[in-house]
Amino acid sequence: MRFDGNPQTALGNRSPTPTATTTSPPPADGRVTDLSLPDGWAETAFRRDAFGPDDVAGLAATLAHESGDAALSIVPVRYERTDGQDHVDALTEAFEHRPGGVDVHGPREASPRTAFALRARFTPVSREREVVYAVTGDADDALAVACLLARACPDAGALKERVEDHGGAGVGPASAAVLSDDEAVDAALSDAADRCAFTGQPTSSHHLHVPLRYAVAAEGYPQSDAGVVRVPTLVDGFAAAVSHGAWTERSLGDFEPSTDVDRTAPGEYRLPDGDRLADADAGRFSLVRLGADP
C-alpha cells in the first residue's frame, strides 16, 4: 500500500502535458506498472470469481480510506440496453443504476451481459453519497481506475471533487465549462480506428482490442486538470489499428492485453507490460462503449 512518489508509476499522476512520441519501440518484455494503493488507503475486500449467468471471470473488491469517509468498490452487475436506455443492476449487492447523459453510439437494444461497476462512496461533510463512477466490461479495468482514483484522493473531499470532474460539474479557469470525461474522450479519440496507432498511416493489417488499463498509458490519452485519466461512463475498451511493420517491430503478437492486474498482496497491484502501448497515439484509438454494435 505504499506510493513510491514517482509520478510515472501512477498513470493518474502523469503531467497533463504530453511528452514527445518516441521513435524506438519499447522493450519486448515491457515494464510492470505499479498500481499499488497510496498511504491512507487499504484493500478491505477482494475476490476473484466467475459472475453472472454468463460466468464472466472478474472480481469484487473494496478499497477504503483510513478515515472511514471514502471508499471505492468494484461490483459485478448485469448490463443491458432497452429502447435506448442503459440499465445496470448489481449482482452481489442491492442497487440499480440508470446512466443518463451518455450519447449512445450504437443500437437501441443491447443483450444482457455481466459487467463491473466502480462505485464511489464519500462523506465530505455530514451526508454520505454513493455514485456509480463508471461501468466497465472488464473487471480489471475497474480495479485499475479505482487505484488511480485512490492515488488522486487523499481524503473524502478530494474524491468528491474527482467525481464532480468526471461528470463535468462546475467551471474551470475563466469560467469555461468543464467537459465531462465522456465528452473529453469523445473529443480526443478517433471515430474509427483506421490509422496505425504508432505511425499514423492508414492500415487494416492488424486490429487490437485495448483494455482501458493499457489505453491510459498511450501518448496523449486525455486527463483532467487534476491529472486524473478520463474514464468513459460505459466502456468496453478501445479499438486500435496497427500496421504490419509496427506490429512486427513491437512484437505485439506476444502481447496479451487481456492480462489481469497482478495482486501481489492486499492493496498491492501490478500491471504486467503496463507501458507496452506507451508510444501509441491515443488519438488514433476509437472508444468501444458497452452496448456497441458487435
Descriptive report:
- This protein has one domain.
- By secondary structure, the chain is of the alpha+beta class.
- The model is unreliable at 1-30 (pLDDT under 50).
- Helices cover 15% and strands 30% of the residues.
Share of β-strand residues = 25-35%
**Overall residue-averaged pLDDT value:** 86
Instruction: Give a count of the beta strands, DSSP E runs of length 2 or more.
Output: 14
What string gives the helices and strands in order? EEEEEEEEHHHEHEEHEEE
Shape: globular
Radius of gyration, taken over Cα atoms and rounded to an integer in Å: 18 Å
Count the helices. How many? 5
| Distance linking N and C termini | 39 Å
Largest sheet: 8 strands, mixed
**Which bin fits the share of residues in helices?**
10-25%
Low-pLDDT segments: 1-30
Based on secondary structure, the structural category is alpha+beta
Number of domains: 1
